[in-house]
Amino acid sequence: MSKMMRAAQMLGPGKIEMGEVPMPEPKDNEVLVNIKHVGVCGADLHFFKDGAIGAWVLDFPHVLGHEPAGIVAGFGKDVKGLKEGDAVSIEPGKTCGSCQYCKSGDYNLCPDVQFMSVPGVTGAFQDYVAWPSDKVFKLPEGVSTLEGALVEPLSVGFHGVNQSEINFGESAMVLGAGCIGLCTMLALKARGITDLYISDILKLRMDKAAQLGAKQVLDASSDDVVEKVMGLTSNKGVDKVYECTGAANAVNQGIGLLANGGTLTLIGLFGEANIPTDLNGLIFKEGVFKSNFRYRHVYPIAIKALAAGIVPLKEIVSHKFKLEELGKALQFNNDHKDEVIKVVIEL
């Protein structure tokens, strides 16, 4: 008879209850991880509120959560390099390994990816997860599982910075100081970028961005961000802009902020499909659009940055809840956005 474990199961929009489900058994290439921390992502909030994100519609019961870290509790016979008791962070996408994207190294574009917590794939708000060993990364001594659960959003920031091909000495502007915006800012600082601006509309997030070392924090609720940045850059603009809000008006704002020949990288996901865009403004600057989908080959780099102490990732955590409080945590996050930067669930 299978051992049982706790799972915070979503039974419908806005409804989560604790239940018992069979503990997974690791396959030959899998690691069994006793989950200790899971970050709450914006996708979790959308699924909790609506039961769907666009074409992704959940079947219930369902377990959310795709930012996990924990302790190795077992593994299959083909797993090397890990032992029971190791602290690990889990990259939440299983890819096929055989398509052209996987073979070329662009595995985040695999059309058959199984991403933790999306419809049909169990998430991590439960006691144990069995996951392929090539997506389970040992955390060095001194890096906690709390930080390990934040490697996922940090990897989004690192990948966005990689996509932009920023060079040392260039200037950067981050639109949005939520979790992803702050992770992007930290990734830029880790790359040695000091001429760094960021904007938001919420005071808590702006204060945190200033604390973490932004050169200038702009209040997008009252400032004309483009005018302010142009004034701060002798009317040149910035070399790289990172859109992390998903707000429709941010795209044209990003174009307006660019220096000639600059790059606008889209990291935030947009709530609407058709967004009016000032393409002539981009053309006249010979600007470049880049986009960012999750990450690839970034987890080891992000973990090294954590171990070196150059990414103060714990500073973005504003609230912690227990697994039994998951429904309360998600509702609080949805209802109190002005008080929240990042919520983490502790098991």
Please render the helix and strand layout as text:
Blueprint: E1 4-12, E2 15-22, E3 30-39, H1 42-50, E4 52-53, E5 56-57, E6 68-75, E7 87-90, E8 93-94, H2 100-104, E9 114-115, E10 128-132, E11 136-138, H3 145-148, H4 151-164, E12 172-175, H5 179-190, E13 196-200, H6 203-211, E14 216-219, H7 225-232, E15 238-243, H8 249-257, E16 258-266, H9 279-284, E17 288-291, H10 299-307, E18 319-322, H11 326-335, E19 343-346
Parallel strand pairs: 12-13, 12-15, 13-14, 15-16, 16-17, 18-19
Antiparallel strand pairs: 1-2, 3-6, 3-10, 3-19, 4-5, 6-7, 7-11, 8-9
Helix pairs in contact: 1-11, 4-5, 4-10, 7-8
Cα shape: globular
Report how far the terminal alpha carbons are from each other: 24 Å
Rg, rounded, reads 20 Å
Structural class: alpha/beta
Any idea what the CATH architecture of the largest domain is?
Alpha-Beta Complex
Written account of the structure:
α4 crosses α10 and α7 (225-232) runs parallel beside α8. 27% of the residues lie in helices and 27% in strands. β16, α9 (279-284) and β17 (288-291) form a beta-alpha-beta unit. Strands 3, 6, 7, 10, 11, 18 and 19 form a seven-stranded mixed beta sheet that branches. A six-stranded parallel beta sheet has the order 14-13-12-15-16-17, with helices on both faces. The chain has a two-stranded antiparallel ribbon with strand order 1-2. The protein has 347 residues and is an alpha/beta fold. The chain folds into two domains: 4-150 and 317-346, Alpha-Beta Complex (Quinone Oxidoreductase, Chain A, domain 1), CATH 3.90.180.10; 155-291, Rossmann fold. The model has no long low-confidence stretch (mean pLDDT 95). It has helices at residues 42-50, 100-104, 145-148, 151-164, 179-190, 203-211, 225-232, 249-257, 279-284, 299-307, 326-335; strands spanning 4-12, 15-22, 30-39, 52-53, 56-57, 68-75, 87-90, 93-94, 114-115, 128-132, 136-138, 172-175, 196-200, 216-219, 238-243, 258-266, 288-291, 319-322, 343-346.
